[in-house]
Amino acid sequence: MLGQIVFVGLGLHDEKGVSLRGLEEVKTADNVFVELYTSLLPNFSLQHFEEISGKKITVVSRGELEEKDGEAVLETSKTGKTVLLVPGDPLIATTHVTLRIKAEKCGIKTRIVHGASILSAAIGLSGLHNYNFGKSVTIPFPDETPSETPYAVIAENKRLGLHTLCFLDIKADEKRFLSIREGLDALLKVEVKRKEKAVTMDTLVVGIARAGSNDPAVKAGYLKDVLDYDFGGPPYSLVFPGQLHFMEAEALIVLAGAPEMLRTVAE
Prior knowledge:
Blueprint: E1 4-9, H1 20-27, E2 31-34, H2 46-53, E3 57-59, H3 62-67, H4 71-77, E4 81-86, H5 97-105, E5 109-113, H6 118-126, E6 137-139, H7 149-159, E7 164-168, E8 170-171, E9 176-177, H8 180-194, E10 204-209, E11 217-222, H9 223-226, E12 236-240, H10 246-256
Parallel strand pairs: 1-4, 1-5, 2-3, 2-4, 6-7
Antiparallel strand pairs: 7-12, 8-9, 10-11, 10-12
């Protein structure tokens, strides 16, 4: 009998975001790994997590998990229980599906202990209804992978009356985080080219920073007003609302400082 890999979500902000079940999995593991490159946990302390779990934790890089196909994780799981700690909710906002598939094909059982996800956290903080969201999209660093895809997704969702959740690109291992202003600027440049009026200075937008922390920043307003708003530190997300339900408009006004006139355009 081969062993198993348990993917454990760390949540969104610090080591306190892991669930009690997730912590129990770590305490009973033979080997524990953590990857910290797919997302930013602003206040995560590896030393503190080792203290509360009583385990030595090995940090694995993007190269070790993706380029080397997670060999170190797979090897230890052949004879025991291995835990891989992942920011957020494993296999959702960050994905290690390839590793899980490879493990199962090798006869290694896999399990998932879910954690808080930016998907639900950002939607919840915005006050918008989750069933009114369309396809989500990532806005990449424009200097590396310029793309019109985020603009196209926002435009298509708007045509359907749906909201769009945009993840802003990060390279946590390089301490690079696309800011809300940079993300909006990139979309405005595409607007100049495509002229579909999907993202203009008068477009309603919601900026979110540090979801999952005790001091998240949430600001809703027209793009021209949100552009220079001080959101503080990362990580960041954007939401482009579609057609608003009257309760959604009220939530944006009360919870995110949106203009009062939103009540007049909601259904």
